[in-house]
Amino acid sequence: MTSGWAGETGVALAGIAALCLLAAALLILVAARQLRRAHQAQAAHRLARDLLKASPTRPLLIHPDGSLELDSALAQELGMASSLPALEALAGEDHGLDRDDISRLRELLAPAVLSGERVETLVRIAGSATILDVRGGAAPPGSPPGTILLWLSDSGTAAAERSELSARLAATEQAFDALTHLIEAAPFPMWVRGQDLQLALVNRAFVTAVEATDADEVVKRGIELVESARADSARQGAVEAVAEGRPIERHQPATIGGERRMLRLVDVPLPGGAVAGYAVDIQELEDARLELDRYIASQRELADRMTAGAVQFDPDRSLSFYNRPFAILSGIEHEWLDEKPEFDRLLERMRENHRLPEVRDFPEWKAERRGWFTSAEEAHEEEWVLANGDHLRVVGQPLPDGSLRLIFEDRTEQVRLASARDTLLRVRTATFDNLFEGVAVFASDGRLYLWNRRFGDFWSLEESWLAEHPRVDELVPAFAARLVNPTAAARLRELVRAATTERRAEQGRISLADGRHFAFAAVPLPDGNALFTMIDVTDSSRIESALRERAEALEQADKVRTDFVANMSYELRTPLTSIGGFAEMLNGGYAGELSASGRDYVSAILESVARLSRLIDDVLDLTQGEKGEVALERERVDLAGMVRSVAEGMEAAARTKRLKLKVAVGEGTGSVLGDSRRLRESLEHVLRNAIAYTEKGEVRVVTRGDDGQAEILVSDTGPGLTPDAQSQVFERFTRLGEVRGEAALGLGLPLTRQFIEAHGGTVQMSSQPGQGTNVLISLPRGSR
């Protein structure tokens, strides 16, 4: 019994303990919640306090009993305690509120306590210009009834804020007006569409573009800037701008002022669903773009016609253009280049084709050329010498957009020509210095440009001074000091001037004081310069002088000989006439009958007299012809009869040498007007020479003629003449070969030419050794 009770008692105590623990736990939870709420209340209190301190408005609490409770900041500003017994305690002489303002405030508080009306007034702080704005009313719920809460703030701050807001409003209105005027004065159309996307506002440029009367007409009629068959097409940009919430730009043509123009249309969405837009005329840009495209096409076509290779890379270093000369120069197929390879790949391909110079570090070399894309220099120029000896001039030009243009010029031929030119210049210099002549070249301004060593030696001029390229005016004093006649130096200056400015060549001679003589010449050159040459003619001058003296002596001797022959001919004619006369008397029997042998002797004397008389006449004719004293008798001469008569007279001489003498008289032979005796003698001289110099064969005489002239051709089968001999046969007293008789005297052909030329005709000879000789006599017909 006892143990049972004890057990029950233990269970009860355990239950009580559990309940106590549960109650303690609940109390702890409640205490924790209350503590958390207390902390939150403290935080809220601190926040409210801080907000109150930061606020520009200060509270004033008026209790129902009339006592005052001031904010600490307000009490400090008024110079009073935080608690005051009545409203009048706020008054003061140099601090506190103005008494009149407090009276007016008290009047306003009574209705506020009774009916809860709002209190709004202004009060001044005594002794200052500060004005406080007082606003308030019944205190919030929870306060005792009749409690009034007033808020005091410095009205100066509010006024400043209102002034600032007014200024901002005025500035905004001014800016809006300026923007409105700017939009109205804009040279391009601008518009605003409402929420229904219909035109609401347009500017003056829009009205002008659509040729309307005013903006109202445009808005009322809904005249769109861009014509379209679809009504909503003109508003398509506005629809997209509203849907996407961003500006939409498009290009569309329109008719402006009667011209078709391309416009750039921009629609900008505005808050509230409205859309603003504007249009810019880009026709000139389109024209410029098309012109640029045509220019680029023409440039590429021109590049294909260039002899230099051209290639261009984009900023990403891919090939964008190449011309045919580059493909040929690089040895790369067009198909591979059309794939637009990268810059490095192109260089590597050119290296494989041996079209790059050999370098030690190719990657570094390639990287340096890759740096041309971003180089600050305007151009890079290099000379590439390839392994096969080709010379390339490479110009790399970085472009503003980051691309690169390369130009390849094959200068192999130019380098070779330059080398050849240098060789020629060295040869020319060596040639100049080794000439016997003194050579100098003067530029168009008269300055000495080139000279050889002998030129300086002739004038005893220092090489160092000539290297300064003096003008010809500076050389004249040096020339004058070396000349026999110093004034002749000015002549040399005039020669250079004439050759350079007047392009006239001149020459002459000068004599130096040391006894030397020079022949000089100034010749204009094609490049505008003048070539001045000097050659030492001292020896030739002496020889020339000697030859001149000899020629004068020979002329004098020839004159003496001619006069002697003429005088002797006249002197011989008188005794010869006597001999002939006496011989004719003997032959006529005046001295008695002669024996047969005597008659033969007399005949021989008469024949010799006739022959000697003929020779004397020939000599006289020859000497008179040289003096121009040949007298001709003009009569009609039958050439056919004269030829036959002369041929018959020469038959005996031809038979003696067993030659055939043939005569062929043409139908056109006719007659001429001239001296019959002189013409006959001319033909006799030619035939006599032909028979004398022909040993076998024949001698032929052929005549022919036309309306203007008659010709007599005498040909033989003799040994012929050399060109040198032909030039001598018409000189008097010239004997060719071993021949006897009158032909050996050398009078016949000179007399023939003299007589024929006196008639206005010509005598021509053609001959070749071993093929005979032809003599052609041409005579004009003449007129009475």
TrEMBL record:
One of its GO terms (molecular function) is kinase activity. It holds the Pfam family PAS_7. Keywords: Kinase, Membrane, Phosphoprotein, Transferase, Transmembrane, Transmembrane helix, Two-component regulatory system. InterPro entries: HATPase_C_sf, HATPase_dom, His_kinase_dom, HisK_dim/P_dom, HisK_dim/P_sf, PAS-like_dom_sf, Sensor_HK_Regulatory, Sig_transdc_His_kin-like_C. It catalyses: ATP + protein L-histidine = ADP + protein N-phospho-L-histidine. Residues 763-776 have a biased composition (Polar residues). Residues 762-784 are annotated as: Disordered. The chain crosses the membrane at residues 12-32. Its EC number is 2.7.13.3. Residues 567-783 form the Histidine kinase domain. The keyword Nucleotidyltransferase does not apply. It is an enzyme of class 2 (transferase). This is histidine kinase. It comes from Sphingomonas swuensis. The lineage of its organism: Bacteria, Pseudomonadati, Pseudomonadota, Alphaproteobacteria, Sphingomonadales.
